[in-house]
C-alpha cells in the first residue's frame, strides 16, 4: 500500500498503487465527456451541502461545531474508482475536507471492483485507528462483515451512495428506487400506447442495481410497456456497447422501442451501438446519473432523458464532521432525484448532478 501525503495532511492511499492509478485513469476517460471533477459542485467556496440537498437534507446536515475544531481521522472506502462517480468522489472528498476541515485527516482506498479487496482495505483502516468510515460498498452483503468489524472497533460508519446490509450510523444518497421509478414513468409517458424495452443493468448484487431495477418495474405496473430482455453491463460504457450490440442483433428493426440503463455510462455505450447500427431513429435511451456529458447528449437530442443521481461528496464529509464532533445524525439522508430531459435540460446545464 502506497500513501501520498499533501501539504495539508490528508492522505490518498492507493491499494496496489499502479493498478489503482490505471483504473482511475480509465474511470476519468472511459466516456469522452466524463471528467474526474464535476463542472459545478467540486468544492465551492462555502461550507454547505450541494444544490441537490433539499431543505430536509440541509437541516439534517446542519453542523453545530466550529469547523476548525474538527480533529479526527476519516477513512474513505470506495467500491471502485474506475467509474466516473467513484473517480470524482475519491478525488473530491479529500479536496472538500482540506478546504473546510483542516484538522480532518482523510485516507482513501479504491476497492477496484472487488469485494474481497475492499474488505481487506477496510480492515487496514480499522487497524490504523480511524474514527469514521465512509464506505460505498461493491456488494451490500459482502461488505457487511467489514462494516460490522469497524462498528465493533468503535468506528462510526457512513454509507455513501450505496447501502450496506447491516447497521450503520447513516446512509447518504439519492433514493435508487425513486430514480428507477422516475425513469420508468418517463418511458410510460413517452409511450402511452406501449413499448418494448431492453434493460442494461448494473453490477449484480450492488444495492443501486437492485433498487433501480425494482423502481423501474414498479413504474411499469399497469402500463403497456414491457421489458423484453435484461442483461448486466456492470455500469461500464464498453460493456454497455457490447450488450447493446447483442440486443440489436437479437431484435430486428421495430422490435426495440426504448432502452433503460442503470447509469449514464452504459447509456453512452448503448447510444454508440445504436448509432453504429443506424437505428437511432427508432430507439430512445433512458438512464440515471446526470453526468455533464449526458446532459450534452440530451441537449443534442441523442439521449431521451437521464435521472439526476448527485454525488454525495459534500454531504459525506459534513456528516463525518458531525460524527467526529459527537453530534447526532439521522439514519437516512436523501438527495433529490430529478428527471432531466429536453424540456428542462437548459436549467441544469453547468450544474449537472455529477
From TrEMBL:
<keyword id="KW-0732">Signal</keyword>
<feature type="domain" description="Periplasmic binding protein">
    <location>
        <begin position="74"/>
        <end position="309"/>
    </location>
</feature>
<dbReference type="InterPro" id="IPR025997">
    <property type="entry name" value="SBP_2_dom"/>
</dbReference>
<comment type="similarity">
    <text>Belongs to the bacterial solute-binding protein 2 family.</text>
</comment>
<dbReference type="Pfam" id="PF13407">
    <property type="entry name" value="Peripla_BP_4"/>
</dbReference>
<protein>
    <submittedName>
        <fullName>D-ribose ABC transporter substrate-binding protein</fullName>
    </submittedName>
</protein>
<dbReference type="GO" id="GO:0030246">
    <property type="term" value="F:carbohydrate binding"/>
</dbReference>
<dbReference type="GO" id="GO:0030313">
    <property type="term" value="C:cell envelope"/>
</dbReference>
<dbReference type="InterPro" id="IPR028082">
    <property type="entry name" value="Peripla_BP_I"/>
</dbReference>
Amino acid at each position: 500500500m502506497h500513501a501520498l501525503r499533501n501539504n495539508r495532511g490528508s492522505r490518498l492511499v492507493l491499494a496496489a498503487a499502479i493498478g489503482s492509478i490505471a483504473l482511475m485513469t480509465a474511470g476519468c476517460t472511459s466516456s469522452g465527456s466524463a471528467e474526474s471533477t464535476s463542472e459545478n459542485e467540486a468544492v465551492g467556496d462555502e461550507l454547505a451541502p450541494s444544490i441537490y440537498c433539499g431543505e430536509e437534507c440541509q437541516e439534517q446536515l446542519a453542523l453545530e461545531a466550529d469547523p476548525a475544531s474538527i480533529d479526527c481521522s476519516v477513512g474513505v472506502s470506495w467500491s471502485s474508482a474506475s467509474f466516473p462517480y467513484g473517480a470524482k468522489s475519491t478525488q473530491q472528498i479529500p479536496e472538500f475536507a482540506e478546504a473546510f476541515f483542516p484538522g480532518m485527516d482523510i485516507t482513501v482506498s479504491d476497492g477496484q471492483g472487488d469485494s474481497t479487496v475492499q474488505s481487506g482495505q477496510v480492515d487496514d483502516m480499522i487497524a490504523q485507528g480511524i474514527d469514521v468510515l465512509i464506505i460505498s460498498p461493491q456488494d451490500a452483503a459482502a461488505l457487511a462483515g467489514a462494516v460490522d468489524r469497524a462498528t465493533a472497533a468503535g468506528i462510526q460508519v457512513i454509507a455513501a451512495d450505496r447501502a450496506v446490509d447491516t447497521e450503520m450510523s447513516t446512509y447518504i444518497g439519492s433514493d435508487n428506487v425513486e430514480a428507477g421509478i422516475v425513469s420508468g414513468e418517463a418511458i410510460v409517458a413517452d409511450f402511452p400506447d406501449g413499448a418494448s424495452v431492453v434493460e442494461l443493468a448494473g453490477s449484480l448484487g450492488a444495492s443501486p442495481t437492485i433498487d433501480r431495477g425494482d423502481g423501474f418495474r414498479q413504474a411499469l405496473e399497469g402500463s403497456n410497456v414491457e421489458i423484453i430482455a435484461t442483461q448486466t453491463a456492470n455500469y461500464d460504457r464498453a460493456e454497455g456497447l457490447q450488450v447493446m450490440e447483442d440486443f440489436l442483433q437479437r431484435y430486428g428493426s421495430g422490435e426495440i422501442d426504448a432502452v433503460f440503463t442503470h447509469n449514464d455510462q452504459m447509456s453512452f455505450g448503448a447510444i454508440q451501438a445504436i448509432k453504429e447500427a443506424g437505428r437511432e431513429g427508432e430507439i430512445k435511451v433512458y438512464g440515471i446519473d446526470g453526468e455533464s456529458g449526458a446532459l450534452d447528449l440530451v441537449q443534442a437530442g441523442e439521449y431521451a432523458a437521464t435521472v439526476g443521481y448527485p454525488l454525495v461528496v459534500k454531504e459525506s464529509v459534513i456528516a463525518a464532521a458531525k460524527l467526529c464532533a459527537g453530534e447526532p445524525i439521522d439514519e437516512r439522508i436523501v438527495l433529490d432525484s430529478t428527471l432531466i430531459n429536453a424540456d428542462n435540460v437548459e436549467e441544469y446545464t453547468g450544474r449537472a448532478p455529477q
